[in-house]
Amino acid sequence: MKDKKLIKEAVLYSSVEPDSTQQKRFRDFIAAKYGPDIQLIWKKDGKYPNGFRLEVESDVYDWSIEGRFEQLKQMLKNSASDGSDSIPLMKENIRSWTPEALAREVGTVLTVGDGIATVGGLPNATYGEILIFDGGVRGMIQNLTETEAGCILFDDDGQISSGSKVVRTGKRAGIPVGEGFLGRVVNSLGVPIDKKGEIPASEYYPIERPAPAIIDRQPVNCPLKTGIMAIDSMFPIGRGQRELIIGDRQTGKSSIAIDTILNQKGKNVICIYVSIGQKSSSVAKFVRDLEEKGAMEYTIVLHASASDTAPMQYIAPYAGTSIGEYFMQQGKDVLIVYDDLTKHAVAYRSISLLLGRSPGREAYPGDVFYLHSRLLERSAHLSDEKGGGSMTALPIVETQAGDVSAYIPTNIISITDGQIFLESELFFAGQRPAVNVGLSVSRVGGDAQTKAMKSAAGTLRLELAQYREMKMFTQFASDLDDETKKQLAFGETLMHVLRQAQGESRQQYEQVIILTAVLAKTLTPVKLNDIRDFVGKMLDHFRKNHAAICDRIEKTGVLSPEDRSDIIEIASKFVSENAEIETEL
Ligand code: ATP
Ligand code: MG
């Protein structure tokens, strides 16, 4: 707070000395605002030929022509941005406009560097407020002490130096949102970076918004199909759920997210891909892929590249979430991918260290948990009264040598509703997607799984767990009994059936048919190396000759006992007729 007693003098600038009545008016104004005993000093300044400028500590009152024009400009800008018919409104505004003696708080830059500035002399500044520096550089307050404010900068800090002036805006950071963003690539401030022209904004949302309240939510009850069999069958994701994708580098984390986006085609889900700290070249390739497959129509890419400043990387996921909330509030379903939050935490760590905060575990600041919890809490399935929209989050986290107990992984595991753990060992062994069945879990998605999927996947997880255990026990054994060999072979078949190439998404009916057939052990005679091709051929056979079953499963989401026995019968017949059967001599 401003201590009125400490203020001793007020300085008045003008080109002509004020006469006695004017002087009295200024004295009265100062006495009313700041109390008596303040000395009024006049300084001649040719910059204000038509008015006055009064400075009391950091408050500046501008009665000059320029200052009044600035006020008028601001007011027109504010009134025009509410989207209403702006011309008549402007006329009305101009008619009723009287210039006010508005205080503008002006501070001074003390230090600047590494995208961070400390500013002195803004006693009323608030946390998260946007400041405008000389040359139009924008910054956001992240740290407040008694005498100075620490500020992160969104633009190049080369334009400002110590001593530069700073003004408050009284506004928080925001991002334009709207339908126009679909199919576009933007940066963390919503500015297009795909050279396709301006994006018309429907609204302007703050980047940090409170998460929906408990009563505004409803349980997850509708599946978000990834098209990846290992996930849809064992770790189903529901709309509104937050499912973490975690694994070492180069284990196919991004590929799972991208395949999920591709699989949303024609399913009425709007996808937002937030890339944080990645190479622009890999994001460009990703966008090209989406465009080729016609998936960019329903996708928005928000890109904060590795070369962007840490502040831009820090705000990227919040900005992306605000864009998603715009659609969620209209009752639409949104899928948002944060690729990845490890780099986000690192960006926040560098900001915090530069701001002089004390480092804690792994040199992250103490509030790093809050960094991600307030982000992921914004994903929800809204109640029907609130429109029934949803936002599903797929955050991605990179681990070092599979260590899930590091700081950031444990934090995010505890915030999310489950994780898909990808293992490099599996990946290099050719098991792709490299989902580790033992360490992955989905805590709420089971409720959203269709009945058909649930009954088809039945014992899959259990069988795979048994297979893993048995494989571990028998890996050094040379002589195995027939029963064990059979079980191992069955496990191998299951693992091979779950292999899927990139971009090869499987519809619900395809997954149900494959799982029903393989779990009934009909595919066991097929050679392991042939199994992928064979499954493809078998599905063709079903599509061609048994379309009714496929249709029924896809449309109703139910697998009737008759359909189940039909599938098993058709599959075993197809195997005996077509497979090159492996027989042991
Ligand atoms: P990074 O840690 O670099 O972000 P990542 O974990 O996101 O890597 P991706 O970039 O998705 O991994 O994939 C790594 C490589 O593995 C890519 O070359 C990709 O083409 C390949 N890959 C991913 N999934 C599969 C798959 N199902 N089948 C075959 N190849 C795959
Ligand atoms: Mg990746």
Side-by-side strand order of the widest sheet: 12-16-15-17-18-14-19-20
**Total domain count:** 4
> Could you tell me the number of beta strands?
20
Structural class: alpha/beta
**Strand percentage:** 15-25%
Q: How much is the radius of gyration in Å?
A: 31 Å
Q: What is the CATH superfamily of the largest domain?
A: P-loop containing nucleotide triphosphate hydrolases
Helix content: 25-40%
Overall average pLDDT? 89
What oligomeric arrangement do these chains adopt?
A: single chain
Structure, briefly:
This protein has 585 residues and is an alpha/beta fold. The protein has helices at 20-34, 65-80, 86-96, 229-234, 253-262, 280-292, 310-328, 341-354, 368-376, 407-415, 424-428, 451-457, 460-474, 482-497, 508-519, 531-545, 547-556, 561-578; strands at residues 9-14, 39-44, 53-56, 59-62, 103-113, 116-120, 129-133, 138-144, 148-153, 165-172, 174-177, 185-186, 203-206, 244-247, 269-278, 299-305, 333-339, 390-398, 418-422, 441-442. The strands form 3 sheets. It has an 8-stranded mixed beta sheet, sandwiched between helices. A 6-stranded antiparallel barrel has the order 5-6-9-8-7-10. Strands 11-13 form a two-stranded antiparallel sheet.
Description:
There is one protein chain. The protein is 38% helix and 20% strand. By secondary structure, the chain is an alpha/beta fold. The chain folds into four domains: 4-96, Glutaredoxin; 103-172, Elongation Factor Tu (Ef-tu), domain 3 (Beta Barrel), CATH 2.40.30; 176-449, 3-Layer(aba) Sandwich (Rossmann fold); 456-578, Lysin (Up-down Bundle). It has an eight-stranded mixed β-sheet, with helices on both faces. A six-stranded antiparallel β-barrel has the order 5-6-9-8-7-10. It starts with 8 loop residues before the first strand and ends in a 7-residue tail after the last helix. The structure holds adenosine-5'-triphosphate and magnesium ion (MG).
